[in-house]
Design goal:
It is built from 4 helices and 7 strands. With 182 residues, it is α+β, with helices and mostly antiparallel strands. The chain has a domain at 22-36 and 86-176: TolA/TonB C-terminal domain, CATH 3.30.2420.
Length: 182
């Protein structure tokens, strides 16, 4: 239900008086993240057993005879790929564009507060692939405000070494009347 704001029927008449008056608050810093590692099923083709030859025996293998020890050439440079140093080291998950979700006026007037935990999947390029409400605040208008805002966030691409990867994280968004900036 992208692009829709769910409001109880009781408040629809009150909400119509506030059309276009939802405020956007300052950007927030995401305090913590959780990376969900998913199991990957990789299928390997089975070998064709009809054309398999017998393994060679010791007598069939000709080993070269080394009559001179190998010598290292002076000034020889070893070329090494930099990825070997960083492979397996994941970069931090950092928001590149993360605006604070708007606190709906009707929710502030009713005194509604709560924490919404969103499960967010991030593409390799840092854009949001999907957003699901993992734990709601108890008020759908707050949950939807957080979800629609986080859908527009972008992140610095997460890398495993030098390779960008997709990740899934949980982001808590707190709606508190004490933190409202007018």
């Amino acid at each position: 239900m992208t692009g829709m704001l769910l409001v109880p029927a009781l408040f629809q008449t009150q909400l119509s008086a506030f059309d276009g008056e939802i405020e956007t608050l300052d950007a927030i810093k995401v305090p913590s993240t959780f990376v969900l590692e998913e199991e990957r099923n990789i299928a390997f083709p089975a070998p064709n057993t009809k054309t398999v030859d017998l393994l060679p025996t010791q007598e069939m293998i000709l080993l070269p005879v080394l009559d001179k020890p190998r010598r290292h050439l002076a000034g020889t440079r070893v070329i090494r790929d930099a990825i070997a140093d960083t492979l397996g080291v994941r970069s931090a998950i950092l928001p590149a564009k993360a605006e604070r979700p708007p606190y709906p006026r009707i929710a502030r007037q009713q005194g509604w507060e709560g924490v919404v935990v969103l499960r967010v999947t991030i593409h390799e390029n840092g854009t949001v692939a999907s957003t699901h409400i993992r734990d709601g605040s108890g008020h759908s208008i707050l949950d939807e405000s957080a979800k629609h805002t986080v859908d527009e966030w972008t992140f610095v691409p997460v890398k495993d070494g030098e390779v960008p990867i997709a990740v899934t994280i949980d982001i808590p968004i707190r709606f508190s009347l004490n933190e409202v900036i007018d």
